[in-house]
Amino acid sequence: MAQGRAVVSLAMVRYLLLDLDNTLYSESVGMDNDIARRMNEFVASYLGVGHDEAREIRRAQRSRFGTTLEWLMSEKGFSDPEIYFAAVHPDGEEYCIEPNPGLGPLLDSIDLPKAVFTNSPSEHAERVLRKLGVLGRFEAVYDIRFCELKGKPHAAAFRRVCEACGVGPEDALFVDDMPVYVRGFVELGGRGVVLDEFDRHLEAGLPRIRSLAELPALLVG
């Protein structure tokens, strides 16, 4: 059941922005763990440290940067994002995701134009959306390249995406599994919902749902 603030009036929302990973599919499929492992391997190789140390270093930077790539480029002299994308998001990474025949009708039931906003590269998003069977359900996919490699939760990234969608933040609803990203959007005047599948963010102070299946109940005419 949806928790947090009251329902959102459709009369006040003109666009739906959805995160990709752990939002359009369940965290339980394990893709996020695979991605994190490859990030740790990349950081370990680039910095010349052990895997455990790389994981701890990455963890320490989470509150300061939107992505590991941003941190590497800002503080560690890294300058080739395409090498990073190829290592972290290789062909076949979507092996763990199963088609979801119910997701398309669920998205269709929400009478709003929709786009995906992800801090991953577009090739990752396309693999995942194709595997889920919903690639054609979105007007666009806004990825980390579109945001000039500085994505969520940067205000400039949200504004850039909203401008491309033809709306202001105040006219959009954004759903993401990361409270820090949702909060960044809300601080710009937008509306946000945290997809909190395992009730990890009870104290986030934001509207929460446990799956996208609960989202239509938040939206009233």
Structure description:
Helix 1 (31-47) crosses helix 2. The chain has helices at residues 31-47, 51-61, 68-75, 81-88, 103-108, 122-132, 155-165, 179-186, 215-218; strands spanning 8-9, 15-18, 114-117, 140-142, 172-176, 191-195, 208-209, 219-220. Helices cover 38% and strands 12% of the residues. The strands form two sheets. The chain has a six-stranded parallel beta sheet with strand order 4-3-2-5-6-7, sandwiched between helices. Strands 1-8 form a two-stranded parallel ribbon. The chain has two domains: 8-27 and 99-220, 3-Layer(aba) Sandwich (Rossmann fold), CATH 3.40.50; 31-93. The protein has nine helices and eight strands. The radius of gyration is 17 Å and the shape is globular. The relative contact order is 0.20. The chain has 221 residues and is α/β, with parallel strands linked by helices.
Give a nutshell description of this structure.
With 221 residues, this protein is of the alpha/beta class. It contains 9 helices and 8 strands.
- Radius of gyration over all CA atoms, rounded: 17 Å
Query: What's the rounded overall pLDDT mean?
Result: 93
Q: How much helix, percentage-wise, in residues?
A: 25-40%
**CATH fold topology of the largest domain:** Rossmann fold
CATH 2nd-level architecture of the largest domain: 3-Layer(aba) Sandwich
Q: What class, by secondary structure content?
A: alpha/beta
**Strand order, largest beta sheet:** 4-3-2-5-6-7
Number of separate domains: 2
Order of helices and strands: EEHHHHHEHEHEHEEHE
Q: Which geometry do the CA atoms define?
A: globular
Summarize the biggest pleated sheet.
Answer: 6 strands, parallel
* Number of DSSP-assigned strands: 8
* CATH secondary-structure class of the largest domain: Alpha Beta
Percentage beta strand: 5-15%
Can you count the helices?
9
CATH superfamily of the largest domain: HAD superfamily/HAD-like
The low-confidence parts are none
Give the distance, in angstroms, between the N- and C-terminal Cα atoms: 19 Å
